[in-house]
Automatic annotation (TrEMBL), chains A, B:
Pathway: Amino-acid biosynthesis; L-histidine biosynthesis; L-histidine from 5-phospho-alpha-D-ribose 1-diphosphate: step 3/9; Amino-acid biosynthesis; L-histidine biosynthesis; L-histidine from 5-phospho-alpha-D-ribose 1-diphosphate: step 2/9. Keywords: Amino-acid biosynthesis, Cytoplasm, Histidine biosynthesis, Hydrolase, Magnesium, Metal-binding, Zinc. The lineage of its organism: Bacteria, Pseudomonadati, Pseudomonadota, Betaproteobacteria, Burkholderiales. This is Phosphoribosyl-AMP cyclohydrolase. In the C-terminal section; belongs to the PRA-PH family. In the N-terminal section; belongs to the PRA-CH family. The keyword Magnesium applies. Homodimer. Mg(2+) binds at residues 79, 81, 83. Its cofactor is Mg(2+); Zn(2+). The gene is hisI. One of its GO terms (cellular component) is cytoplasm. Binds 1 Mg(2+) ion per subunit. Binds 1 zinc ion per subunit. It is found in: Cytoplasm. It comes from the Bacteria. It comes from Oxalobacter vibrioformis.
Amino acid sequence: MTGKGWLETIHWDDDGLVPVIAQEAATGTILMFAWMNHDALIQTVQTGKAVYWSRSRKKLWHKGEESGHTQKVIDMRIDCDEDVLLLLVEQAGGIACHTGRQSCFYQQFQGDVSTGRWVAVDPVLKDPKQIYQ
Amino acid sequence: MTGKGWLETIHWDDDGLVPVIAQEAATGTILMFAWMNHDALIQTVQTGKAVYWSRSRKKLWHKGEESGHTQKVIDMRIDCDEDVLLLLVEQAGGIACHTGRQSCFYQQFQGDVSTGRWVAVDPVLKDPKQIYQ
């Protein structure tokens, strides 16, 4: 396989996107989940830093462009179905979430089917007002 | 919030699905990525074992029903956007992938934008022929 065959290997969805899981390489913590299109992935590989596609803003999102919380890519994987990417990253500031937490997955399920609730269990490391000035 | 409010908190996509990341609790390894619908999630909570929605087979998929490689749920998280779930699991047999590997994310990106390729770097722990007899 030559040229950009590695890009064509990926099974892009109907919107031309692929889901991406970002995991902190040093701790194994799952930091966030996002999406990439062709351009985002190419720029990620070219720069060595995570670039996503923002589905809400409909534009490329250079992770950390506002917060400074960039993600340096250490390793990149694709799954057996070739439709999901995994990035192992070095997370600048140790904070991936816009709420100022390490990870976006800070709400834990507690209870059972009838009493279930989502409870924020992880600490805010930095006030978002100080992150997005 | 009472009753099944925790289910309504989730932002289900247009197909009534939510993406799910499964991570091995003991090692931090990301095992796989799948989808759940309402029923799959309810059955996951009720049984304490991962039940997914198979988009290809269009039916509930009790993980491990054929392979024996069930996933006992240790912890369940939702992200800040409330549209992605994370399961921390105990993986029976230490194998999540149908290829007989621990994780589905066994193909590593190597090279750069023009020379890139995906290379299988993780070992097959058990021959799939022995898993699916």
